[in-house]
Design brief:
The chain is of the alpha+beta class. It contains 5 helices and 4 strands. The chain has one domain (8-169): 2-Layer Sandwich (Muramoyl-pentapeptide Carboxypeptidase, domain 2). It has a 4-stranded antiparallel beta sheet with strand order 1-2-4-3, with helices on one face. It binds zinc ion (ZN).
C-alpha cells in the first residue's frame, strides 16, 4: 500500500461509529496508548529517538488540529489565542494560559494545567510532554508560517503543578 500522510478525516465519522458510547473515553485509555507506544519506541530506538518521534507525531497532530479546529481567515493573534484556549478546553486537552507573548520577537511562554498527558504522574527526573511540544510547534507553525522550537520547562512529572512551555520562533 502506498504511503498516505495522515489527515484529520482519517479520524473517521465518530458520531456515526459511536452512536451510544459517544466521542469521549477515559484519560487512562489515552495514556495507555501513549505510554505503551513510548515504551516500545524507547526499547527499539533509544530514549532520544523515541522523544523525537513522539514530538514529530505531536507536530502533525497540532498542524491538523489547527487546520480543522482553529483556522479562519484574518485571524488576529488575540483571536487566535482565545480560539486556541477554547479549543484546548473543549477537547479536554488541558487548561491553556498564556504567561507572556511577544509575537514580534517570536517568544511565547504558555502553561497547560490538568494536562492530559502528565497531570497526576509520579514525579521523575524529566519533563515528559514531548508530544505537547510538537503539538504546540505544529499549531504555531501553521498560524505564523515560521518554525518554532518548543521546550517544556516545567511539568507535573518534574514536580510542578502545571506544564510550562517556552516557544521561540525561528
Ligand atoms: Zn508535562
Amino acid at each position: 500500500m502506498s504511503y498516505k500522510p495522515f489527515e484529520w478525516k482519517d479520524l473517521g465519522d465518530i458520531s456515526t461509529g459511536r452512536t451510544n458510547l459517544g466521542p469521549e473515553m477515559p484519560v487512562a485509555v489515552y495514556r495507555l496508548f501513549e505510554f505503551t507506544t513510548k515504551d516500545v519506541l524507547t526499547r527499539r530506538y533509544g530514549a532520544e529517538t523515541a522523544k523525537e518521534i513522539i514530538r514529530e507525531c505531536g507536530f502533525i497532530a497540532g498542524s491538523e488540529f489547527y487546520k480543522n479546529v482553529i483556522q479562519e481567515d484574518n485571524l488576529t493573534f488575540d483571536n487566535f489565542i482565545s480560539k486556541l484556549q477554547k479549543a484546548i478546553l473543549q477537547y479536554k486537552i488541558g487548561v491553556l494560559r498564556i504567561e507572556s507573548a511577544d509575537i514580534a520577537r517570536k517568544r511565547i511562554t504558555l502553561t497547560v494545567a490538568e494536562d492530559i498527558d502528565c497531570s497526576g504522574l509520579d514525579v521523575a527526573d524529566e519533563a515528559v510532554c514531548n508530544y505537547d511540544e510538537g503539538f504546540i510547534a505544529g499549531i504555531l507553525k501553521c498560524y505564523t508560517g515560521c518554525d518554532w522550537d518548543v521546550l517544556e520547562i516545567d511539568c507535573w512529572a518534574t514536580g510542578d503543578r502545571v506544564c510550562r512551555f517556552k516557544a521561540i520562533g525561528r
